[in-house]
UniProtKB/TrEMBL annotation:
<dbReference type="GO" id="GO:0032259">
    <property type="term" value="P:methylation"/>
</dbReference>
<keyword id="KW-0489">Methyltransferase</keyword>
<dbReference type="GO" id="GO:0008168">
    <property type="term" value="F:methyltransferase activity"/>
</dbReference>
<keyword id="KW-0808">Transferase</keyword>
<dbReference type="InterPro" id="IPR041698">
    <property type="entry name" value="Methyltransf_25"/>
</dbReference>
<protein>
    <submittedName>
        <fullName>Methyltransferase</fullName>
    </submittedName>
</protein>
<dbReference type="InterPro" id="IPR029063">
    <property type="entry name" value="SAM-dependent_MTases_sf"/>
</dbReference>
<dbReference type="Pfam" id="PF13649">
    <property type="entry name" value="Methyltransf_25"/>
</dbReference>
<dbReference type="InterPro" id="IPR050508">
    <property type="entry name" value="Methyltransf_Superfamily"/>
</dbReference>
<feature type="domain" description="Methyltransferase">
    <location>
        <begin position="52"/>
        <end position="142"/>
    </location>
</feature>
């Protein structure tokens, strides 16, 4: 599968389900104290006013929360439908269309990067180049927060909310992702795994890694 193939599949999927997805996960950050605490810790590591990209921002809920914590946060996503919701709900923030694999951002310009469940559609063989790209846009000493589902086998979502689309959601092992981050020049500073939240239909535990770019 080429980059164009999986990026197109991801964009088409989220364009189709954007409004339903945004409604389903409207309160997810507010309702998960562990996740919220990790975002606050990340914001403190970055520092007041630090420039942060929320990559794969979807409807912009995490972007908005990061901004409320004092960060200069903006969002990037493949899906124009998701971006439309993000702009509608966060009128004071910036949202741009783009791919995490090829960001239209200068080298070393960011104090932080968040990938909140947005690496889960990237094929495993593309992850090294993805993490290299995230390192490129971070300043030395900048921080990265990566969230993902824990496991080995992907979960296929077919016709979600009745829409005629399908997409695989990849699950990863924290040690594997930590190793890839180390290879890409990051120092992994924190590993957190919490159990699944049944209220949100999570079938597996969730992992959160915070890493620091060397320098």
């Amino acid at each position: 599968m080429t980059d164009a193939d999986f990026l197109t599949d991801t964009r088409v999927f989220y364009d189709a389900i954007a409004e339903d997805y945004a409604e389903l996960f409207r309160d997810v950050v507010a309702a998960t104290p562990v996740d919220r605490g990790l975002l606050r810790a990340f914001a403190e590591l970055v520092g007041e006013g630090g420039a942060v990209a929320d990559l794969g921002c979807g409807p912009g809920r995490v972007t908005g929360y990061l901004a409320s914590l004092g960060l200069s946060a903006f969002g990037v996503d493949l899906s124009e439908s998701m971006l439309a919701i993000a702009r509608r709900e966060n009128p004071g923030l910036r949202f741009e269309r783009g791919s995490m694999l090829d960001l239209d951002l200068p080298d070393g310009g960011l104090a932080g990067v968040v990938s909140w469940y947005s690496t889960i559609h990237t094929p495993v063989d593309r992850l090294p180049s993805l993490f290299t790209e995230l390192g490129r846009v971070l300043a030395p000493g900048g921080h990265l927060l990566v969230a993902f589902q824990v496991g080995e086998e992907p979960r296929r979502h077919d016709r979600p909310f009745g829409h005629p689309v399908a997409l695989d959601f990849q699950r990863r092992r924290p040690d594997h992702i930590a190793g890839l981050l180390t290879d890409a020049g990051f120092d992994v500073r924190s590993r957190t795994v919490r159990e699944a939240e049944e209220a949100f239909g999570e079938p597996v535990p969730q992992a959160f890694l915070i890493a620091r770019k060397a320098g």
